[in-house]
Every structure is written in C-alpha cells, then in structure tokens.
Amino acid sequence: MIVPEIQQALGEQHLDGWLFFDHHHRDPLSYRVLGFEPAGSVTRRWYYLIPATGEPRGLVHRIEPSVLDTMPGEKTAYSSWSAMVNGLRRLLGGCRRIAMQYSPDCAIPYVSLADSGTVELVRSLGAEVVSSADLIQYFEARWDEAKLESHLEAGRRVDAIRGEAFRLVGERLRAGATVTEWELKQFILARFAASGLVTDHGPIVGVNANAANPHYEPAELGSRRIQAGDVLLVDMWAKLDQPRSVYYDITWTGFCGPQAPPEVKRVFSIVREARDRAIRLVETAAERGEALRGFEVDDAARGYIAEQGFGEYFTHRTGHSIGEEVHGAGANMDNLETHDERRIIPWTCFSIEPGIYLRDFGIRSEVNVFIDDKRARVTGEFQTDLILV
Hints:
The protein has two domains: about 5-140, Creatine Amidinohydrolase, Chain A, domain 1 (3-Layer(aba) Sandwich), CATH 3.40.350; about 145-389, Creatinase/methionine aminopeptidase superfamily (Creatine Amidinohydrolase, Alpha-Beta Complex). Helix content is about 35%, strand content about 20%. The chain has nine helices and 17 strands. By secondary structure, it is an alpha+beta fold. Strands 4-3-2-1-5-6 form a six-stranded mixed beta sheet. Strands 7, 8, 9, 10 and 17 form a five-stranded mixed beta sheet that branches. The chain has a four-stranded antiparallel beta sheet with strand order 11-12-15-16, covered by helices on one side.
C-alpha cells in the first residue's frame, strides 16, 4: 500500500495530510495515486485523508458506502449536507496544512481538479490548503523500469513509422502521384494499429501555413496536397497497446525538394540549437546532481530563439511531462503559459520541442528526455538536419 510512502513525503514537505476528494470521477489523479477504481459509479462526494502520521480515514455517502472499501482506515458515512460538513470537520481534525489537487491561480491546470467551492469549504473548517503538485509529480509522474521499457519500445516503433511516412511522401512525389495531409495521417494511424500502438488523437501533419499552426490536424475535407516546394511537419505520439504503458512523442520537419530555401534552413538551425541548449542544460544538471526547474529549461530554449529575433513566433511552452497520458502530470518545461517552478525529478520524462511559427511555414523539433538517478538522455532518434523529401 502506498500510504507509508505518502506519509514520508508529507513529512518531508511539512504537511499534516493529503486530502483526496472526488465526485463523478472528476479527479482521475486521485484514483491513480491511491491505486484503486470503484466498482460502480460515483454520484456522491467522498473524501479520503492520509495524515502525515496515524491511520488514514474516509468520509462516504450512505448511498455509496463501499466506494472506499479497498482503502485502509475507518470510514464514516453521511447522508445530509450538514452531516457531510460535520464529518469533514472531524476528518480534518488536527490538520493545519493539507494538500489537495489545487493550484494557486490554476498555474498547473493538470493538478487543479478540486473545485473552488470544495477548497473554500475545507478552508472554512480551519485548514490551510496547499497544492499537491509536487506530491502528484512524485507519485504519478515517476516511471519504473517497466514503463521506461514500454516507452523505449514505443519509440522504436514510432521512429520506424515516422521514417516510413516521409519515404511515402517522397515516393509519391517522385512518381508524380498525389498525397494529402489527411492521407498521410491515415497512413500513420494504420501503421500504429498494425504495430500494436495506440494514441488518443492526432497525428499532426501540416504543410506550409498549416505547419505554422502548432495544433493543426488535417480533416478529410479541405486537407492540402503535399507538393514539391512544401515545408512538411509531422508530430506523432503513441504508446504500446498494453496496461501501464507510456507515450513517446516526437516532431520532425522536412522540405519537399532537393534543397530547402535559405530562410527555411536558417529557422530550422535556430530551432535545433534552441532544442540542443535545453537538452544540454538538463544533461549537465543531472550529471552534477543540481536542482533544475521546469521554467529554467524553457528559458534556455526561449532565450536563444529571442536572441535570434524570433521570440514572438515561439508561441507555446518548450515541453510537457509525458506519462500514461501524452501530457502527463509532472513538471512542464514552461515559463510562458505558466511559470512552472516544480523541480525535474529522477525517473520522469518530458518533451523538449521549441518551434518557430511564421506566416508561411512553421518549424518544430521535438525529442523526449528521460532522467534517471545519474543522467539525462534523449530516448530516441533526434533530427539534426531538415529531411529532404
């Protein structure tokens, strides 16, 4: 049971407890961290407190009294809202500072799952509510050897499919045949399925101005043909079709022709250097055992792009946590969309994917970086030059 590990972490963070709460499966993190899934629907509120010391305790509704049966500790049942409030007061007895899935100003939206009314209720009962963001990262975002191997195997398969996709475009163009963004997307999805991979959506396949839209996805109607002279961006992510597997997520960019225009080559070289500066920062910190926070990695990439005069065209964070969901619950490499002060901790993985998005084309280069106890490494192939399709 994870309770002793959580209690140790609570002591290290000088917290009196961690309060888990759910209603209608709003908080999947609670179930994943606690390691259980209720047998039926959750239509009434439940609360579960793991204190820094002592036995956990829960509060459940009498209509759904068994929702926490698999969890240790005493459970109290309530029916009325007044009994719930009194029960919650008793549940929190002796706790002054507690963690919840809450983030001040919604700075970390992946963690900000407790509604404001519930947070207000807990505060009204005398408890200070602090963010569980660091706890979530420790218990949700860290991998084990099995997850790492699932990531590496997914990477081998995805990298192979990425190569096939670019070769398909080249073959079609040389044969004078046509291929659209939509058709290439469908080719990738079919290869995922045949290779034992699954994905939640995507991939992104965009040419020229569509490549300058970071979250563009082609539709069957209106999809552009991929032609000679086009900049082609492919962003693809997938994981093994098996329990507890984690994602692999990459972006590669190419030019459809024997030689790319100077502006395209220059923008690619700037994006590549920004990527590599961020990677080197992470590698150095890991080797030296130095603390490094997500916003600092973003600064390394963004600062270089800004120095080159393209700062306003880098419109998203440098990277995101990767886990069983492609956008995981660990530290993001972000000092733009949020100021992510979470430390990058061992046995976590994240993307580094700077981009420059101009009017006529966009360039992004994305790799995955995994940190173990001693070093950081890029987990798959990474692009050094534009692909000439």
